[in-house]
Structure formats: C-alpha cells, structure tokens
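All the exercises in this workshop are built on plain-text protein records. A record pairs a protein's sequence with a compact description of its fold. The structure tokens are whole numbers drawn from a learned vocabulary of backbone shapes. Once this layout is familiar, the rest of the handout is easier to follow. An example says more than a description, so a record of this kind follows.
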Amino acid sequence: MYNQTKASQDAMPSSAQLLRSTVAAIVVALAILVTMVLPAEYAIDPTGIGRALGLQNMGEVKAQLAAETVDEPIESVSDGSGNQEILERLERIEAALAGLSAGQVVPAAAAPVEPSVKTETMSLTLAPNQGAEIKVEMAEGAIIEYEWLTDGGKINFDTHGDPYNAPRDFYHGYSKGLFVPGDQGQLEAAFDGYHGWFWRNRTPADIEVTLIVKGEFASIKRML
C-alpha cells in the first residue's frame, strides 16, 4: 500500500514543473498572438512575419470592411453570410443615394442623346472619408474603354449602372474593389442609362483620382 501511494505521488508533476509548463504555454500563446492573430485580424504586424505569411493583407481587408460598416449611418443587418454581403448592401445603398442626390432620374420616355465615339478625362480630389461618383450616359450594348488611377493613394470603388427611371434599391454591379490604386478595362452597357464609378477614400489623406474614358457614349458627368 505504501509503495502504491509513493508511486502515485512520484507520477504527479511538481509545482516547479507546473510553473514551467504554464510559462511555456503563455510564451507560445503570445508568440501566436503577435505573429499570426494581430496581423490576420487587426492588420498589426510588429514582427513582419505576418506580412511574409500573407496575413497582413488579410487583416487590412478585415479592418477596411469594419471601417465601411462603422462609418455608414446605416443599421447593418447580418444573416450570417459574412462581411462581403454587408459591404455589398452598403454599396447598393450608397449608389442609390448618390443617384437620388444627383437627380439623375429621367422620365421613362426619355432617350439618351445621340452617342458618338470620343475620349474624355476627368479628375477629382477626395478628402478623407469622402465619396464621389462619375457616370457615363450610354445606350445598351455600347462599349467604352476606361482607366482610372490615383496619385498614389488607395481607395475603394464600385463600378455599377442605373437604367433610366430605375426602381428604388435597383443595383447592377460590374466590378468593385477595396484599397486599390486604380483599375482599367472595358465596360459594356447592360441597358440604356448611366454607368460609372463610385469611389470612397478611407485613408487619412486627400487622394486625387483621374479617369480616362474612350468609346461610344452620349455624355459624362460627376453625379456626386
């Protein structure tokens, strides 16, 4: 009986062993927090390991999504599908508000002015947290080539279109991006109406945006 009790006591870890195990666990947890969790979740990378592993970019996107949700005076509703759906809802509402504030609704009988092939360049400056929109009036099936770029900063954008007399909450997207310095490509109008770009500056500094459009369209103007 004595030998069994002594063997059981010998098998139990001592206080010193427990302390060393606890300290080791804390050190490992801190290392994971600093090198992986902070870069991936909060875009904080004091060691540089997160950027090397690609976690820093993940954290920047998450931080940007959080900023988009917090900054808008809209009560977000999440159905569990994640930040992407929240962002898309916010962008649709912003696009709709932009159109309403610009008074771009045209009577149903109206038609675009006679389009012609031309090249236009427009520039604008966005203050921190400011949004702006430029749209091209196009007929269905018309194609334009476009390129827009900043003076070095990175901004969010949503390329979308609105038909004449669009119903409330209508949204037709072509492309979008977060925290990018520019974009280029072709845009084919899905319907008669206005097609273009909405930008928002989520950085602490002013950003200048220059847009170049070439193709068949009736007009181009800043909507917001």
